[in-house]
Amino acid sequence: MIDRQAFQARKRAFLDRLLREAGQGRVDEDIYPFLLRINELPWLYTTSSCSGRIMLADVKTPSYSKGRGFRPIAKWHHAVSAERVAEAVEGHGDVWMLVRGGILHIAVDSAKRAMELVALARATGHKHSGVIAVNRAGVVVEILGEERLDIPLKQGGELLVDLGAAADMANRVLLLAKARLAWLIAKLEAKYLGGEAPDDEKIRRRLRELAQCLYGGPRR
Question: What is the model's pTM?
Fold first, then answer.
């Protein structure tokens, strides 16, 4: 059972952290207004978020673990130029480029609310979403975008790929991921905040067209 006092205490703590980190420039600007609005709901609070990112890591094998042997060297939440990538990898021996879609961690006050969120997330292509924790302070849902890309850029100090081509592909994947997250946000706002309901079929069609444009081939 959810402890209402514990839930409200955690909600206040995470909202305070959101406001503090936003003031420090540590919250993605493109989703910050949405985070403020969704946290107004009395039965919900967000614990962490990312609107999608391109990361460079000094590591021998690709992993998104922050554990031993994984050292991030650069991160962008927007499109990046080949020149910026080249500057970031200078002086590093083994470098991978990792692109990940949006991620939201949301705590709610009931299993029913949690399953509603999971259903909305999966309906917008965030297929790996689900409940990841249940405790006195809420049921925690992880909403995870499906877009990802891992590219080895350097090995033993030697470039393996054209950095311009790598940056271009990373930017394409990030663009599609952010478009998918925008669809989810529109559905959440329509259901819980009084926003206008998006035309799901039209958006699916537009996402398919965007994927064809970005990748040069059909996408299911």
Answer: 0.89
